[in-house]
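Why show two proteins at once? Because comparison is the fastest way to build intuition. When a single record is shown, students tend to memorize it. When two are placed side by side, the eye starts asking what differs. So, the first record is below.
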Amino acid sequence: MRTQKCYLYTRVSTSMQVDGFSLDAQRDKLRKYAAYQDMAIAGEYSDEGKSGKSVEGRPEFLRMLRDIEDEKDRVSFVLVFKLSRFGRNAADVLTSLQKMQDFGVNLICVEDGIDSSKDSGKLMISVLSAVAEIERENILVQTMESRKQKAREGKWNGGFAPYGYKLVDGELSIADDEADVIRLIFDKYIHTTLGVNGIAAWLNQQGYQKKKRQNNTLDAFAASFVKGVLDNPVYCGKLAYGRRKNEKIPGTRNGYHIMKQDSYMLHDGIHEAIVSEEVWNLAQQKRKINGFKRKKTHSLDHEHLLSGIVRCPVCGAGMYGNVNRKRKADGTHYRDYFYYACKHRKTVDGHVCTYKKQWGEDKVNDAVAEVIRKLVQNPKFEAAIRAKIDARIDTGELEQEAENYRKQLRQVIGAKNKLSQQMDSLDIADSHYERKYQDMQERLDRFYDRIDEMERAIAETEARIQNIRQQKISGDNVYQYLLYFDRLYEKFTDAEKKEFLGSFVDRVDIYEDERPDGRFLKRIRFKFPVFYDGDEVRELSWDDETTVETVVLLSQQKPDDR
């Protein structure tokens, strides 16, 4: 009779699990069951710290299903400790089970005594999975009701204390070394023309430093921090509940996203306010006027093609696209002037960039496009690109390495199973039983260490193979564009140009000022290798000290000059 093969699947919803449901406890139970039933374990899959509400968040579970569909090991069963470890969403449980059964694989829930290959098994799974889902939903509802009641009572609902407060015995208490900054933010916002960006910059310029908290590592102030302070009613002595809600994404079974709510519960807190309710209300009135995202009304099709890719020549940060809208002579129409400028993003780290020059977007965009155009016009470049696309990726050595690991794994598992059988057949009446059992247990532990080592090696090798293949696919897509760059680029919309440049160009460095010969590009670094002057390179440089080539020369050369 052929030995039946099985997979083991274990899961805990937190990194630490008690009451006998730990990963080790589950594995031990399943391994003993497999040995008792004379089943060969072909693979073990484990999700740690993963909820059972949906299969989407459980990578190992999904990998197991893929291996079943691929008939990788031709297993007959999946063993789980309890049905709740397989899943708590009834629809997901039944869908996954049906997918397994389509390939001749059944589910055994060891602790529940359920076997889906038996007549009553699938019915029991349907009932218990529905009960598990109802139980999960009830726990969620009870938890939310408990949190809602705490909010009604004005008590802090857990989590980090907001800036300006500290937690004392689970209650909010004013942190004197932080509260002054909170008062300053409200005062500046209400009594000056500064917005959230201006207040953040002012605080940094005045030398204020934000105290680092458990959930933050920056000691400078950002606009997002100021905005969060102004919008949080906790500072006027109130506690909000339900400002954000986890809402289902339409058209999905288990997809959710967090949405900000227009209306929410607001209760008097038992904590002390940092600002008065009047001050907070004045800030909210100004937020309603200024705190909305302005819709784009002009140049709707325009995109900042190299935004963030062009680098500031002084601080090295990304230069971002901006617009200067000027009224035409007739006074009724506007014209947009687009430019790249350093947004002085280094301010958030306490350093202010001094580079103020603005570069016209068309000037920079056209120069970069011209460099690419001259590259691809070279017949040698085209030949090299085609060879690159046609080249087969050689992962044979890695695949052989993975197969060797799998072979070693099978041997170790076989030896481990044989040892387990020998342990089970030990005579308890033997005077040396305890010593023999202990010796075998130590050997068994070493087998498990070896199995873990082999499984990690296989996973790492397979990941390297997948990464090589993915890079090949991504590179080929870009190379296909490059072959037809001349014919396609000018027909692209701005959005398409931005997508292409973003997939090919890693960064563009410029000089602080335009050179006497008109040069301003200093260096272009690509995400994929390009072919230039007989070499495969990732970077073209026109720095005086590193190369004699210039943009001018490059743009003047004809394809057959090289």
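Second record. Ask yourself what differs from the first in the token line.
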Amino acid sequence: MQKLTSYFSKKTLLILGVVLLSSFTLIKYAFNRNDVVLELIFGSLNQYHYSPLTLNDQFSEKVFEIYIRNIDYNKKYLLESDLTALEKYKLDIDNQLIYNPKRHDFFNLASQIIVSRIKQKEVWSKELLSKPFNYSEIEEYETDWKKTTFAKTESELKNEWKKMLKYQILTRLDEALTKQELAKEKKDTSVKILSFDSLEIDARRKTLKANIEFFKRLNKITQRERFSEFASAITKVYDPHTEYFVPKERKKFDQAMSAQFEGIGARLQQKDGILKVSEIIVGSPSHKQGELKAGDDIIKVAQGNSEPIDIINMDIDEAIELIKGRKGTEVRLTVKKTDNSVKVIPIIRDVIEIEETYAKSGILENKNKIGYIYLPSFYTDFSRTGAHHCTQDMRKEIEKLKKENIKGLIIDLRDNGGGSLQEVVEMAGLFIQKGPVVQVKGSREVPVSIMEDRNPEIVWDGPLTILINGNSASASEILAAAMQDYKRAIILGSNSFGKGTVQSFIDLDVLLLPQFDTLKPTGSIKITQQKFYRINGGATQLKGVKPDILLPDPFAFIDRGERELDYPMPWDEIIKANYKEYNTINYADIIKKSDARILKSPQFEIVKQQSKEIKLKRDDTKYNLQLVKFRLEQKQLRDQSKKYEELRKDIKDFSASILKEDKIRNSRDTAKLGRDDRWIKNVAKDINIHEATNLINDMK
């Protein structure tokens, strides 16, 4: 099996973006987009990936397994015979991917089969949901795809669909029956009591509607989108974070990372096929224009003075894409008002900021006044539209908190999946005088580079704690690890995710020769090009960051993190960087006090019990489909959950509040004030945050 590198022997060709070598190839495949995209992908991977791979049978087998899982992860579409038909390509995908006339045989056959099977299941769903099920029949439904196999016959697979649909109906039935039972118990006359048959018909109707919408989305998947899924299966063999993006998905990624988009500034929701305005964002184009109101139904959308498009029953994502658009452009909405009048409302689009994804702060009271900052991600201006930078926002929040005379600071990085590498380096500099923050190593014979803070200014030099959990990844791990290595902060929570790799985007369009311009846009590829290391030399890859203080975690017994993904990069270590520890924290004394508090805490004891119960439930993946037994199991789960309500109660001598400065600034936006109020109330009930304040008090 020949290496793909033989196709890229001339470096100058790569620099020019010529990934199709011979004039014969250029002519033969000039109008086959998929061939060109594959060559661009492989050229980029071979040139830029941290660990370029050889295309061989092992590579082929991995692509096969990932792609089959992608198109039928729960084994509800393909038959064993379909799998057998595809398996003849299992060790041949690598040969197909290197230029030959049959390079798309596997992909084409897989697409043909899955499209056919989806249509078949759509017919089955409507047929099965057309009449009541037998709810006294003794049978079980397995929800864990890893414990199932592909069905041998259509009747066997149809029976699995029957059980899956029955499970969906039973979930709705149990909810409705429980609601009625509680109403009877509380003598609540506002709840209408219906017969079982009426409830069953309603549950089946809702299940059918949900499935119709589900298949509508499946049937809209284009062949180009299916190819994108196949291309991503190829890139995932390299590592979990190398991925091919079609232009639409790349746009979504950039918007998520910059926490802004261009549009009209209205929150929308769909009900019964109608797109309804649920909220107008204060300061947005819709708010400034003034005519669009919460409760309005949007029935048509026009771009400027063009012909309006009817969006009733349109997929919500498609409808929203029509409404969104470039800053400065006009959209005209045909709206049905709450009084049933119809009006055309013109709105000039602008940049809308998603404030919920920005850093936000509060004041905590526990013997002392303590600052709290929640950072959802390490966002930056990837889209270059003037978006926020998280380091600038963090600095602003710290300065506001300092005006309140806080005695310590808590940074909450729980569920923060990372983001910009440059931002985290700059953010670490807010807490240290100067020095290295993270070490970065590429695959080539290039020396390790040290990214460091060169600004001697410290924005916060007082007591500092950082909260992390199993979903804190990448940039979150860099900040936590750096503060831990400098002994600048106490890290508490649970072990972090373990993602220690760095990705960059390559726009495939820039690699195209002019004669291929008609194929644009070809998309982008996010490639793992580097690994990062702590300044102590160790990698966070796979191992993550171990907190100084380990808090009880509901998911303590659940395997998760980078090590659970397909083909992660290995752990290794490099030479320690030159840095000086702060050594101002008495770790032994503080950890001892915290451990004693955790041991005595009734709430943390509940979390420990919860973790065991979650593990048991995670392993018990079968559901009894007999109505009486199903409802009994659901009741046991609800009763079990009631024990956890203790975790959401007020904590004695502990409170949280929004900064007065923020309340004044947002006084006109009652919706935002309401969201902030709900958020800060939850902060005040969080036992992990409460323990973080105890640590601050101990550090003082």
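One difference worth noting in the second protein: The mean pLDDT is 89.
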